[in-house]
Amino acid sequence: SLTSLLKSWSQFAETNNIAWWIAHGEMIGWFWNAQLLPWDLDLDIQVSTYQLMNLIQFNQTVIDGRFLVDVNPYLLRRGAIGFNGMPSQNVIDARVVDTITGHFMDITGLSRTTTARWVSCKSPHNYFLNDVLPLHETMLDGIKVWRPHAPITLMEQEYGGHVLTSDYFEWTDNDIVYPFYWNATENKWIHVPSTINEGI
User: Fold this and answer.
1) Do residues 100 and 67 make contact, with C-beta atoms less than 8 angstroms apart?
2) What SS3 class is residue 113?
3) Which residues, other chains included, contact 76 with Cβ-Cβ below 8 Å and sequence gap of 6+?
4) What is the pLDDT of residues 150-177, one digit of tens each?
5) Using CA atoms, how far apart are residues 21 and 43, in angstroms rounded to an integer?
6) Phi, psi of 181 (to 5 degrees)
7) What is the distance, to the nearest Å, from the Cα of residue 114 to the centroid of all Cα atoms in its chain?
8) How far apart are CA 197 and CA 200, in angstroms?
């Protein structure tokens, strides 16, 4: 499960002094109830490019006999333009893959840009460094993780303010809509059967 993957990574990173933090969907889940989003199929974390270099030594390491660390051989090529001058889809710097389920955690590195105090990944997402650092220890799904210094600012910048207030979300897979609503009483996202018969 994604929880098992996150737990193993958290312990592995702590043992090997790898600084990292949650990003994207994991940050949204942390905001709402400190749980992984029920519709998420993967994990997203970020590290500095310095930590990416440190991660190379663990390439092809299998964590806990199950989770494979796979480092992109082109991680030093920063930017979203490929060798042919066209936009590149190769923007993930490393991945930890569950060899049993196929689920994975994407790892993207942030490097300094030409603008002072700004950093960027290859997607590119751009961040004001003071919004990222210093990192803060917190919990997600009962697992110790790290979050950026200003998560609200970063989520509003990436998704818009509605991601922090909207109590309804539609996740789409193969043209099938899976609606979720926020149940404040139970403090969790609840899946509501869609108008399309799922599984047919």
Assistant:
1) no
2) coil
3) none
4) 999 999 999 999 999 999 999 888 888 8
5) 11
6) -130, 155
7) 25
8) 6
**Closest CA relative to residue 106, chosen from 189, 1, 25:** 25
Q: Which two tokens stand for residue 138?
A: 């917190």
Q: In whole angstroms, how far apart are CA 30 and each of 3, 23, 55, 143, 151?
A: 13, 10, 25, 11, 10
Those residues whose C-beta lies under 8 Å from the C-beta of residue 70, and which sit 6 or more positions away, are 59, 60, 94, 95, 96, 97
Distance, first Cα to last Cα, the chain? 25
Q: Do 38 and 189 contact (CB within 8 A), yes or no?
A: yes
- CA distance to 46, 47, 89, per residue, from 111 (Å): 11, 9, 18
Cβ 45 vs Cβ 26: under 8 Å: yes
Pairing of strands 104-112, 43-48: parallel
* Contact of 70 with 8, CB cutoff 8 Å: no
pLDDT, tens only, 2-22: 999 999 999 999 999 999 999
Confidence check: pLDDT of 63 > 80: yes
- Strands across the sheet with 168-173, in order? 168-173, 176-183, 188-191
Specify the long-range contacts of residues 58-63, CB closer than 8 Å, at least 24 apart. Answer: 58/16, 62/99, 63/8, 63/9, 63/12, 63/96
Q: Please write the tens of the pLDDT for every residue from 76-131.
A: 777 655 444 545 567 899 999 999 999 999 999 999 888 889 999 988 889 999 99
